[in-house]
Amino acid sequence: MAPITIISRYVAVIGAGAAGLVAARELRREGHAVVVFEKENQVGGTWVYTDEVDSDPLGFDPNRVAVHSSLYSSLRTNLPRESMGFIDYPFVTRSDGSGDPRRFPGHQEVLMYLKEFARVFEVEEMVRFEVEVVKVCLVENNRWKVSSKKTSDGDIIVEEVFDAVVVCNGGRNCQPHVADIPGIDVWPGKQMHSHNYRIPEPFRDQVVVLVGNSFSAADISRDMAGVVKEVHVASKFNEDGTYEKQPGYDNMWLHSMIESAHEDGTVVFRNGRVVLVDVILHCTGYNYRFPFLETNGVVTVDDNRVGPLYKHVFPPALAPWISFVGITWKTLPFSGYELQSKWIAGVLSGRIMLPSQQEMMEDVKAFYSKLEASGKPKRYTHNIKDYQCEYNNWLAAQCGGPGFAEWRDRMMYATTKNRNLRPETYRDEWEDEHLISEAQEEFINYTS
Ligand code: FAD
């Protein structure tokens, strides 16, 4: 067999969060020349905590002064560090005892880990800091023009042509999604999105309703409970009659969804309860957003489906010249990003072959039909919870590397189970020691 010729491409990576860092590393390992554009002055993306918040607390105004990170001050990871890290650079505790050694550490520890990753793999030298990409559009021969500007002197636009672009802008967590509440327009209270929640103190002695049923609602309700007068958590996933005082709290209740909000400041829940409320805090997730991307309608965001994307990464009509890392959710982010990045790097160099455009498109259509037949809403297109192991193993096989260790998947499920069993203490008490041992056995390959 003739040896494969590895082709080096000139590749732009947008963003230096976890996805952009590992994409840049994999692209360079494959022999590509890489420029990473990062609008902030440091790597880490989401994990760079800031006290600042958006100028529009709900995130509606497209011209708002927006901050990138959604972290609240008290945030600890919702995944154990063993399963959270990159595959070949485990997120282990520091041997000198510094940092936060907890299994579910605070956010500062994750940022330190990502910074170390960037240093160890010399990623920072590829990054143009404080440079925001404002436009990415197709030019001749399937190449991409990337227009960018320094965040400090916003008027000068620099244009540069690349062979390929890898989008790692954290587009999944950029645009707050808020709940639709009948009567909200006349309700006089304050509304905000969890993206703009930092600390509980501003809510002292207030009555707060949190809408949502995922990590932020669970964490923020507990963070607030010691300071606010009352906290009410409402979710569309709770049955209509739900009304439960939360064990261990004398001022926190779980409700069914909000039925309506009223001019007199009251909020009516579907369980019939009426509460006079100061603040509604939407912990309702995000919509995808790629404000710089111009693909002439080839890639669209429709009801939170980014598509069409072959295996959540390549738009068939533009593959492999534009790709996305980090679109998938309800998964282990960092290790998944690593495999997506390896795949992209190998495809761009010609070492890994993609199916034809038509075959990729058929695969996407078959995937959409399957989702529809199973009754999954379009919004859930990139939720890979039920097949993350299969998906990651498929990526690993494409890359010709070892499979995705099953303990990672099992640890994620063990954590979910533990969280349901011990919502207050799951970060400090667990029963999956056997999985930690398996993880540590694997880590020896990378840490010794
Ligand atoms: P980001 O980290 O958002 O990075 C994107 C980068 O792109 C940013 O640095 C941004 O400045 C830059 N950028 C964006 N647009 C441009 C542009 N136009 N030009 C130049 N640069 C640009 N995951 C876990 O594994 N464990 C957890 O416990 C966990 N908790 C989370 C809690 C919250 C509140 C949120 C929001 C997410 C959490 N996640 C968690 C998921 C988290 O999003 C991922 O872990 C991961 O950090 C996302 O990485 P990313 O690189 O895709 O995006």
TrEMBL record:
Its EC number is 1.-.-.-. Pfam families: FMO-like. GO terms for molecular function: flavin adenine dinucleotide binding; N,N-dimethylaniline monooxygenase activity; NADP binding. Its cofactor is FAD. This is Flavin-containing monooxygenase. PANTHER family: DIMETHYLANILINE MONOOXYGENASE. Belongs to the FMO family. Keywords: FAD, Flavoprotein, Monooxygenase, NADP, Oxidoreductase. Gene3D superfamilies: FAD/NAD(P)-binding domain (3.50.50.60).
